[in-house]
Amino acid sequence: MTLKNFSTTDVYIQQRELNRLYNFSDSTTSSFGVSVFEIRSASFELPNWTSSFSQGIYTDLLWHNIRSTYFQHEINPQQTVLPVLQSTASVMVIPEYVIGEGIKQKSILVTNDTTNETFRDQPVSDLGVFYSGTIAVGLVDYRNGVLVMTDPSQSFSNFTCNLRNRMLVTEHRYYCRIGKSEFNMSLNPTAMSGSLDESQSFVPAGFCSHSAWSPYITSIGLYNQLGELIATANMSQPIKKPTDYELTIICEYDT
User: Fold this and answer.
1) What is the per-residue pLDDT across 6-39, written as a single tens digit (0 to 9) for each?
2) pTM for the whole structure
3) Lower CB count within 10 Å: N or C terminus of the chain?
């Protein structure tokens, strides 16, 4: 079997971003692995500390974790007024297998199904802010898939959410250029006579030597430098191999 090397101009590899749309509500969060917590502040001084526990999480500890992560430092104060974390808040955590590289900015639409009020994210550096009118009532961590409603009047207990994720894929495109004098012999076993020539290669059947003979291309194999098959491209229908002009077939796959 003869392999043909690609020239550098025949190989095209680049990264691109895909944005898949997700739509879920409080009744379907478990189907997507999304967790919702109603969190509250608490004092940690013993013996008065009492903690609430929900879905394997101490919600008061989560409140303090959210506060220390997002609300104890200024983020672009010139561009926006950040929300104030109240003593009770609502948190949504979206898993990595849903968001991929993160949530796409300006793609989130949260609807409070009780009041029909809607909230769209407004990016601020690496974070986003939800507004009710001109008042900031929520925060978005795009990279980690965390949404926080900081105003007690808003909650993820009765909601609908639409958003798009960010998935980076590497596109591989190969231009397989087949010269008019190349690959004019079929690899189909039925095209072999069954006998061997001096180099111990199979001799083509007699009908393959006819002047009108031309094989059909049904698939193309892509091999690495070690001669190992790494991908196969199958034609939707066989293509007759021309003998009087060059044929170019483009093979693409994503990783």
Assistant:
1) 988 999 999 999 999 999 998 899 899 999 988 8
2) 0.70
3) N
Residues 6+ apart with CB under 8 A from 10: 174, 175, 176, 177
Q: What phi and psi, each to the nearest 5 degrees, are found at residue 79? A: -95, -25
DSSP line for 129-151: EEEETTEEEEEEETTTTEEEE-S
Q: Which of 55, 22, 29 is nearest to 158 (CA)?
A: 29
For residue range 188-231, list pLDDT tens digits in order: 555 555 554 444 454 555 555 555 566 788 888 899 888 899 88
DSSP element (H, E) containing 33: none
Number of separate helices (H) and strands (E) present in the chain: 2, 19
CA 89 – CA 86 distance, rounded (Å): 6
In the chain, alpha helices (H):
59-70, 96-99
Which of 168, 175, 177 is closest to 254 using CA atoms? 168
Residue type (1 letter), 152: P
Nearest to 51 by CA among 36, 41, 65, 66: 41
